[in-house]
Amino acid sequence: MKKASKHLITSSVLCLALAIGTSWAEDLARYLKPGHPDVYTVVKGDTLWDISGEFLSKPWLWPEIWQINPQIDNPHLIYPGDQIALVYVDGQPRLQLRRGDAGRTLRLTPSDTVSLKPQIRSTPLESAIPAISLDAIQGFLVQNRVVEPGLLEASPYVVQGEGERLVLGAGDRVYVRGTLSDSEGFSIVRKGPLYVDPETNEILGREATYIGLGNAVGQEDDIATLAVSSTREEIQIGDRVLPTEERRVDSSFFPSAPQGEVRGQIISVFSGVTQVGQYDVVVLNRGLREGMEVGNVLAIYKRGALARDRIANETIRLPSERAGLLMVFRTFEKLSYGLVLSTERPLAVHDEIRNP
Asked: How far apart are CA 327 and CA 335, in angstroms?
């Protein structure tokens, strides 16, 4: 009896799995874009988002349809000259990678006339294409960051420039009050906005706006000398000094849908205004602790306007309407940076973000 029950349960689970698989395959086929190519050749300037849009009406479904080629080194990296082919595996649509010359590796060995130990060097001939255009976000990938409240206030700060100069930039030396620990380099940052969750009033972090880079060349008591190597804008008295971040910059992430339900807001925009447009960088009140991942695509909903219900004699908020898409490109513990990919109507701070 137990064997029969176990067999029945196993069969039921198998049938359910097959049913789900069939349904999912049908869903994916439904999202293939009309007129999609059978084969697409990657060209310089392409982004993964652009290529996804060639095949799928919902580009964030790319990970669900991507077929890993185990015989290819780094099959997640795509280079100009590679070909993306649409195939069907067990009746399910899949995209496969066919490596072109740019993504191949050079294998160099010594010539017969030189007696050296054979060695191999593997180097891509061209850089892999990014997920989205890096022009708008390059500085945010490697420079701007969010820190815990209070960190900047406790950090070393610029007190004066060499020769009492007030205009400070690359090539100058500045004097810093505080001890600079051993480090290969330091970031000069300025205190940016304090981010507060509009729903809970929780403090999410402080923006540390990047100003420049420098190297410590001296320390006497609590005064350090910093040689400035590069700047994005003029250094000011009171700017703070932090060790440079040690982090891997990855622009080859895949567009993807979030794993769980997402409900949040746009809480700031870096253009310096409250209105949000295409290719603006925005700050979201959702981060790693809420499961946000680099590459997640989110729908933007225009927050519904307030209206007066004259019958009930009360103010009500109208339903929010879908108005755009964004992609998360950097995550912190309590918030994230996103790039607005498309807009269907004017957007603003406090508009909502949801699953796509």
From this structure: 13
Considering the domain architecture, whether residues 144 and 237 belong to the same structural domain is answered as yes
Q: Where are the beta strands (DSSP E) in the chain?
A: 39-41, 83-89, 92-98, 145-147, 157-161, 173-177, 186-196, 203-220, 223-231, 240-243, 263-269, 275-276, 281-284, 297-302, 306-309, 314-317, 321-331, 336-343, 347-348, 352-354
**φ, ψ (nearest 5 deg) of residue 248:** -85, 125
Any idea what the Cα angle at residue 339 is, between residues 336 and 340, rounded to 5°? Answer: 125
CATH of the domain at 318: 2.40.10.410
How many domains are there within the chain?
3
Residues 284 and 312 in one domain: yes
- Domain limit, last residue, from 111, 129, 147: 129
Domain-located, residue 252: no
43 is a domain residue: yes
Domain shared by 231 and 272, yes or no = no
Question: CA 256 to CA 51: how far, in whole Å?
Answer: 14
Among 243, 276, 306, residue at a domain's last position: 243
Q: pLDDT tens per residue, the chain (356 residues)?
A: 444 443 333 333 333 333 333 344 456 788 899 999 999 999 998 989 999 999 999 999 888 888 877 777 777 789 999 999 999 888 888 999 988 865 555 444 444 444 433 343 344 445 788 888 877 787 777 678 899 989 999 999 999 988 777 778 888 999 999 999 766 789 999 999 999 999 999 999 999 999 999 999 989 999 999 999 999 889 999 999 999 876 655 556 789 999 999 999 999 998 767 788 888 999 999 999 999 999 999 999 998 888 999 999 999 988 889 999 999 999 999 999 999 999 988 899 999 999 99
What is this structure's pTM? 0.77
The residue range of the domain holding 295 is: 263-354
Nearest in space to 93 (alpha carbons), one of 120, 139, 56, 60: 56
Q: CA 79, CA 250: separation in Å to the nearest integer? A: 15
Residue 65 belongs to domain with CATH number: 3.10.350
